[in-house]
Design goal:
The protein is 38% helix and 23% strand. The chain is an alpha/beta fold and 481 residues long. It folds into three domains: 230 residues, TIM Barrel, CATH 3.20.20; 77 residues, PK beta-barrel domain-like (M1 Pyruvate Kinase, Domain 3); 126 residues, Pyruvate Kinase, Chain: A, domain 1 (3-Layer(aba) Sandwich), CATH 3.40.1380.20. Strands 1-2-3-12-13-14-15-16 form an eight-stranded parallel barrel, surrounded by ten helices. Strands 6-5-9-8-7-11 form a six-stranded mixed β-sheet, with helices on one face. It starts with 7 loop residues before the first strand and ends with a helix.
Length: 481
C-alpha cells in the first residue's frame, strides 16, 4: 500500500473510532498517524486502541505511527452555589482562593500560580474566551476584575491567561503518569501541551529517555515568542490553533501558522496543522467550502501533516472525514500552482555534507528520469533533510529500526520500508531497488537515487549518493564490492 500524496493525515481516536473495523477503515481511507488524546478516556482505553493499531499494522504490513497527546495543566474556576452565574459587561467580578461556592460577584480560582503572575491590565479568559475580564487590582490570593465580555459562567470552566508567563510546569502529575505509560506501551511521538519555554521540552525529553520523539504544541503567546528556542529542542511541532485562537487575537492565527510552518520546514522538523480543520463533519457527511480551503491552505504552505480531532474521535462520519482530507490533499498536490508555491518557499540553509548530499539528490532526481530518492537510515535524520527539500519524486526510507520507521510516518512525502541491517553500500542499493519495485515506485528498467552513510549503522554519517538501476543484476555486475 502506498499513498498518492505527500502530506500526512493524523486521525484522533475516541468513542467513535475504537474498534478494529473502524481503525482499519481509517487507515485504509488515508490515516498515517493515530493520535491518542490523553485528556479523554482511561489508560486502559488507550492501551486497547494502541493494541488495535499495532494489529492493523501487522495485518496490512505497513508501519503506522502512534502519537500520545498529553493533557497539560488545566486551569479551571471552582463551583457556583447555583451551578452558574451571569456576568454583565462593565460589572466587577473577583477571583480568589476562597473555596466557598461562587455567585455573581466572585468565584474560587484554585491556582495560586496565576495570582502570583498577574498584573493590572492582564486578561482572564473563561470558557474558551467566551467570557473576558480585565484585571484591575490583584494580590497573592485575589484578582479584582472588570467584565469586558459578559456571559454565563458555570462550574469548572477553563481559564486562559494569555498576557503573562505562568510559573507552571508543562507536565502535571497526571501528565507524568501518562508520559511513562505512553512510553512503556511504545508510542512513537509524545505531544507536549502548555509549552511556554524550551525548558518544558527538555524536561519531557529527560523523562522519555529516548523512547519517543517530542512534539511541542504551540498554543500560547509565550510559546510563539520563544518559538525559535522551542523548535531547537523539539523533534516536531504542532500548530494547535484551538487555544492559540483563544489566547491570541483570532485574526493573528493565520500569519502565525504560516510563520511556524516555514520555520519548522527550514529546520527539517515535521509540523502538524491542527484543530477545527473539518469541524462541521462531526455532524455532517460533507465539509464546508471554508473548511476545505483551510485544509488546502495548510497543504500549500508545505505542512507535513494535517490533523482531525473530534471529527474522527467523536463525530458521526470519522472515515468520511479522513477520506475527505485525503481527497483534498491529492487535489491540491496535483495543482501546478502547488509546486510553484512549495519551491518558491524552499529556503533551507545548507552547511553540512548531509545538506549537500540531499540537495544534490533532489536536483538529480528532478533533472533526470529518476523515479524515487531512497535513503537507508538509522535515525531518520537524512530522510528529514530530503523531505525538507520537498522533491518532486517520492522519498523511500529504509531502516531496520522500528521507532525510526514509525516516526517518519509523520514526515512529508516519506514511504517507510522495513529492511535488515546491512554492512555494505551495495546491499543498501539492492534493498532500495527492491522496495522501489515492490511498492510500485519504479520498474526494473528505471533508475533511483540512493543515499546512505559509511560506516553503516552510525548516526550522522550521510556521505554517499548513487544513481542506481532498479535491476539487481546490473547492480551486482557494476559494483564488485
Amino acid at each position: 500500500m502506498r499513498r498518492l500524496r505527500n502530506v500526512k493525515i493524523v486521525a484522533t481516536l475516541g468513542p467513535a473510532s475504537s474498534d478494529y473495523a473502524t481503525i482499519r477503515a481509517l487507515f485504509e481511507a488515508g490515516a498515517d498517524v493515530f493520535r491518542l488524546n490523553m485528556s479523554h478516556g482511561t489508560q486502559a482505553d488507550q492501551r486497547a486502541r494502541r493494541d488495535i493499531i499495532r494489529q492493523v499494522e501487522e495485518d496490512t504490513g505497513r508501519p503506522i505511527a502512534i502519537l500520545a497527546d498529553l493533557q497539560g495543566p488545566k486551569l479551571r474556576v471552582g463551583v457556583f452555589a447555583n451551578g452558574a452565574a451571569d456576568l454583565d459587561e462593565g460589572n466587577p467580578f473577583r477571583f480568589d482562593l476562597d473555596p466557598t461556592e461562587g455567585d455573581g460577584h466572585r468565584v474560587n480560582l484554585p491556582h495560586p500560580e496565576i495570582f502570583a503572575a498577574l498584573t493590572p491590565g492582564a486578561r482572564l479568559l473563561v470558557n474558551d474566551g467566551k467570557i473576558r475580564l480585565r484585571v484591575e487590582t490583584c494580590g497573592p490570593d485575589f484578582a479584582n476584575c472588570t467584565v469586558t465580555t459578559g456571559g454565563t459562567i458555570s462550574n469548572r470552566k477553563g481559564v486562559n491567561v494569555p498576557d503573562v508567563l505562568l510559573p507552571l510546569a508543562a507536565l502535571s502529575e497526571k501528565d507524568r503518569s501518562d508520559l511513562e505509560f505512553a512510553c512503556e506501551m511504545g508510542v512513537d511521538w509524545l505531544a507536549l501541551s502548555f509549552v511556554q519555554r524550551p525548558e518544558d521540552v527538555t524536561e519531557a525529553r529527560r523523562l522519555t529517555r529516548g523512547r519517543a520523539a517530542i512534539l511541542s504544541k504551540i498554543e500560547k503567546p509565550a510559546a510563539v515568542e520563544a518559538f525559535a528556542e522551542i523548535l531547537a529542542v523539539s523533534d516536531g511541532i504542532m500548530v494547535a490553533r484551538g487555544d492559540l485562537g483563544v489566547e491570541c487575537p483570532v485574526h493573528s492565527v493565520p500569519p502565525i501558522q504560516k510563520r511556524l510552518v516555514r520555520a519548522a520546514r527550514a529546520a527539517a522538523k515535521p509540523v502538524i496543522v491542527a484543530t477545527q480543520m473539518l469541524e462541521s463533519m462531526i455532524e455532517s457527511p460533507m465539509p464546508t467550502r471554508a473548511e476545505v480551503s483551510d485544509v488546502a491552505t495548510a497543504i500549500y504552505e508545505g505542512a507535513d501533516a494535517v490533523m482531525l480531532s473530534a471529527e474522527s474521535a467523536a463525530g458521526r462520519y470519522p472515515v468520511e472525514a479522513v477520506a475527505t482530507m485525503d481527497a483534498v490533499a491529492m487535489s491540491v498536490e496535483n495543482d501546478p500552482t502547488y509546486r510553484e508555491v512549495i519551491e518558491a518557499s524552499r529556503k533551507a540553509k545548507r552547511t553540512t555534507v548531509a545538506d549537500a548530499i540531499v540537495a544534490a539528490a533532489r536536483e538529480i532526481a528532478e533533472t533526470t528520469d529518476i523515479k524515487a530518492i531512497c535513503c537507508y537510515t538509522q535515525t531518520g535524520g537524512t530522510v528529514s533533510l530530503v523531505a525538507r527539500e520537498r522533491p518532486r519524486v517520492p522519498i523511500i526510507a529504509l531502516s531496520p529500526v522500528s521507532l525510526t520507521l514509525h516516526k517518519l510516518c509523520l514526515t512529508w512525502g516519506v514511504h517507510t520500508v522495513r529492511c535488515e541491517e546491512v554492512e555494505r553500500f551495495k546491499m543498501a542499493v539492492v534493498n532500495a531497488a527492491r522496495a522501489a519495485r515492490e511498492f510500485g515506485f519504479a520498474d526494473v528498467d528505471d533508475k533511483i537515487v540512493v543515499t546512505a552513510g559509511v560506516p553503516f549503522n552510525v548516526q550522522g554519517t550521510t556521505n554517499i549518493l548513487r544513481v542506481a538501476p532498479c535491476d539487481e543484476r546490473l547492480i551486482f555486475s557494476t559494483d564488485p564490492e
